[in-house]
Amino acid sequence: MTVYRYRLIPESSIATPLRSDTLCGHLLCAARELDGDTVLGEILERFRADEPPFILSSAFPADCLPMPILPSLTRNDTRELADALFKGSLFHLLEDLKKFRKQKWVSVTAWQHLCTNLSFKTLFKDYLQNKAGSQNKQKENEHNTEKVPEIHNSINRNTGRVLEHGLYTTETTFYGQRSYLDLYAKTNESDTMERYLSHMADTGFGKDRALGKGFFKWERDDTFAPGDLFGKGDHSMNLSVFSAKDLSSVSGTYEIFTKYGKVWNGFGENNPFKKPFLAFREGSVFTSYPLRGSALT
Q: What is the model's pTM?
């Protein structure tokens, strides 16, 4: 399948994180609304047969990828870098190492240079050599997005009144002007997928769409060269939320989180939540993982 990059240009605040699993779910909803239940059923069967019509990444800040999750510096590497770059000062090295660990993203340019020889050490050295640029990029991303807490009341549906101690907060992300996000898609059916993406952009993404949240424009990045993302090696980094029924074959360095799906079938259950499951965050690095039966989006 061919890899494409799309620019998502927010036109409103967005209340649901633009992660691959939720994006995929919206495209499936668009397939049903535009083409009907039969077409949706055919698409789902293709996913079950490990022949998905499309695979999506999560959306990332412009020209960035998630920081790879890798083993930290060894003691020998720490001493070597301190001697070579900090005149033997472990204090100053650890000071910069602390700042480096706060970096959430790696630029696509840095990835292209390092992906064939990627390690925590090479990433840290690149950060030190381009420290001003890396910090400015991080500040630019933070400046272009602002996460704002919103306070809500819990309502007793039987009485219609606010519950005592029922205040809770949710988080909404606001984007600056001229900011955009990168979304990667792997597909041989780009026309169909883009039609579904347009429907999602027009009808809104995530929660609180009725309040005007979750709307964006998109455009295909025709300057993107898919080969720039791929290096040679025996490791791979995922750009999507990743999980599978059997995780016994997973090997690598990764972060996991508990995913709580929220789909209710409306037949009177007291609990609208799906059973939680473990998933791997974007940026996890694998030497092996299930090739079949995996949910890559």
A: 0.86
